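#lab-general

N.A. 3:47 PM
ok so I finally got the sequence cleaned up, no stray characters, all 435 residues accounted for. can someone with queue access submit it? mine expired

B.Y. 3:52 PM
send it over

N.A. 3:53 PM
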Amino acid sequence: MKSVLVKASVAVMAVGSLAACSGGSGGAHTSGNDKGPPVHAPAAAPSSKLKVPAAYDTSRGWQLSGKQLGSYAVLPHAGGIATMTSTGSAYRVTLRDAATGRVRWTGKPFKDLSESETPGLVVVPVGGKDYLVAWSRGETGGDALSKAAQVYAVDSYAADGSGDAVAPTHHAEIPATDYGTGRVTGAGERLLIPVTDKREVALDVATGRTTTYDTGSLKVPGCSSCAYGNEVAALTGQEPVVLNEGGGAFGVPGSWDDDRIAPAEADPATGMVWPGSGGHLIARWEERDGGSHNVWAVLDGRTGRVQASVLCAKPFIGTGEAPGSALSPNGRYLVSEHLAFDLRAKKGHCFEETGDTKPLTFTSVTDDGIAYGTSLTKGKSLTGTTAPVRLSLATGSPEPLAEGERTPIADFDGVGVFTHVVGDVPFLVVYRHKG
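B.Y. 4:20 PM
back already:
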């Protein structure tokens, strides 16, 4: 697979891209591969007060740390935070209430099929509901005469379960190969499983139904010359979004193509597309007539309709990675690294680096249109140092936060979610909104 799906599961913030998390992407945040016993005790009150933006109340909240944390993901529609912890090769997922830290349910233990890779944890939103998916890849079966089979084992959980040994709503085993396979990713409204370089399986986590796509036979709408190099870039509920990176073309066969929906400023022969949060797509074109900007847009994944777009200075140093994104719980605001969009006002803002300004990267956005992220000061290293920033999408004007403030990796259900490390112990800290 090309980098188009590197951060796809990042569609829901703190999964893949904060990894998010997930993902992109593709999976969840991982605090370490502790092999101690899983701990499902009630969450503790925060042991220390972090320096955070003024909107959060550090006197009200909860935290997890160390072996209680493991891998984690947020479920904004369900108002929950999931963790995946281990005992040896056995893993289990736990869903906690985001506001209180109370355990809602704990899944049945399952075995990791891989000896060298922690299982993945992905959140897939379907029809306004969150589904939690745990997956691993490895061998199953086999004996003295027969070879073991390579498979992806995928367990899907509905977020509204209860109990202390919840079975997955659906269990699927998808054939894999020893080569050409990658991570399972949330690619929109379904899960994308890369069986081989030429064959991919889409899993509907709500129904358990699978659909196999042969990339050699997929057609890119509106591009008669795109005979080779086609790939599944994202998934709607029913159809794939097919991309030909070399041809700069993408669309949903039989429905729409990027030539017809590209903004007026865009060169339609230069299109790229990635899955975004909440069923949206993130698209990019070069500016017409060799202009010095790129055109970025948020699209409706099913119709291709442009929901908001913005001209953005071309970066000094480009990247081949897919952009992560986060959607506000009410669905109005979307941020994607250096981009911020108000989908209701159909307006976008760009904070790419220019000759006068530092690049900004946003990782979360609230229902009030407040985005949090960091600015990057380029130094002698490629990464440089960062500083916290806040953006009001109502004005489009960013402002620096106090030095040392931590910005939330997610904000939903009246809480902000933060991370920090003390020594080598990771912490996830949740603070309530003030008021």
